[in-house]
Amino acid sequence: MQTDVIIIGGGLHGCSTALHLAQRGFKPIVLEKNIVGRHASGVNAGGVRQLMRDAAEIPLSIAAMDIWENLDKLLGPQLAETCEFIRRVGQVGVAASASELAWCEQRTADMKALGYDFEEMLDAKGVRQLVPSLSDICIGGIVSRRDGHANPFRTTQAFRARAEQLGARFYEQTCVTDVAATGSKWQLDTTRGQMRADIVVNCGGAWAWRIAEMIGEQLPRTHLALTLMVTSRIQHFLDPVVIGIDRKLSLKQTQVGTVVIGGGVLGDPDLDAGTTLTVADRMVESAQTVWDFFPVLRQATIVRTWAGLEAVTPDILPIIGASSVAKNFWHVFGFSGHGFQLGPIVGSLVSDMITDGKSALSIAAFSPDRFSNGAVARVPIHAAQHEQPGAAG
C-alpha cells in the first residue's frame, strides 16, 4: 500500500493533521494501533482553554480558539454540533491562600507585559459572581472568559469523519512495528502489511518515542496516566470550568448534569498493554479538594473513574516539528495533558509546514531538537503544576 503521507496515531492531533492535509490535496493514511480516540484524546476533561498556558503556547491557543468558535466552517454544521462545544463560559483558576492569590496577580501582570489581556484578576466577590457555589475557602482567582469545554471523544470522531469525507483513510487495530527509509520514501512494517509513503507524521502520543527510536532519534520517554472521575447527575450549579492554582482541581459540569473531576491524580499506566488502572487511595486528595471548594458536591456519588495515557515532556511543552535526524519525518506529540484545545491549529500549522515549508505561526519553541544532547528547557513551577495534571485541555 502506498500514499503520499502516513500519520501514525489516531488521536485528535493525528485526525486534525489528516483533515488539514486532505484539505490541501494529500491522501493521508492514519494508522491507529487501537481505535481512534482511545487514549488521551478521547478521555481527557475536554477543556478548551487559554487560561494559564505557557507563554510559548499562547499564540497557538488564541488561533486555536478562533477555529473552535468556527468549527462549522472546518467540520460542517452537523459534525461541529456533535463536538458539544460550549463556548465563552470561561475557565476560572481559584485561589485558596494569599500565596496563590499573589501568583494570580503576578501572572496577570506578566501576561499584560507580553501584550495579552485575556486573563483577568478576580477578588473574592468577583470569583463568586462567576461561581456562586464556591465555599469561603476561595479568596479570589483568575479568569479567561473566552474559554469553554467540549466532548473530547466526539470531537476526535468528528475530526476523523471530516478527514474521511475529504479522502483520508483510517486503519484501526494497525500497529507499526518498524520504520525505515528506502530511497526517497519511507517503508512502514505494520500488522496490516507493508506500507510506503513520501512523508510520515508521528502522532503516537505516549508511544511516539518508540516510533522516533525506529528512525534513530532519541526523544523523551515520559508518560503518565491522568485520572478523572464523574458523578451522577445533579441539579445545574456550574457554568465555567474551575481549576486549582496549587491544589489539584479541574472540574466542569456537563450538559446532562454530571460533573467531571480531574486535577492530576495519577493512575498506574502499562504502556505495553495500552491500559491504565485508577488507584482509589490517590483519588482521596482530589475528593478532599472538591469537598473543600464545593459544598454542593459533598453528597455527590462518584459513578465512574478512568485514566488516559499521555506523553509528557521534561519542559511540559509539546514536540511539534521536523525530525532532527531524518528528512520528511515529523513529530507531533508530548502535549503533557493540555493538548486538546490546540488540536485544530496544530494540524493546520503542521500541514502548512509540510506543504509550503512555512506557517502563519512559529513552532520553533516546540522543535524536537531542543532535547538533543540532553538539553531541557526550564520548567516554571506553576506551569508544571497547572499544565500537566487533570488533562484540562
Automatic annotation (TrEMBL):
Entry keyword Oxidoreductase: yes
This enzyme's EC code(s): 1.-.-.-
Gene Ontology MF terms: oxidoreductase activity
Uppermost EC category: oxidoreductase
Stretches assigned to the FAD dependent oxidoreductase domain: 4-353
Keyword Oxidoreductase attached: yes
Alphabetic keyword roster: Oxidoreductase
Superkingdom, taxonomy of origin: Bacteria
PANTHER family cross-referenced by the UniProt entry: SARCOSINE DEHYDROGENASE-RELATED
Protein name: NAD(P)/FAD-dependent oxidoreductase
Organism per entry: Mesorhizobium cantuariense
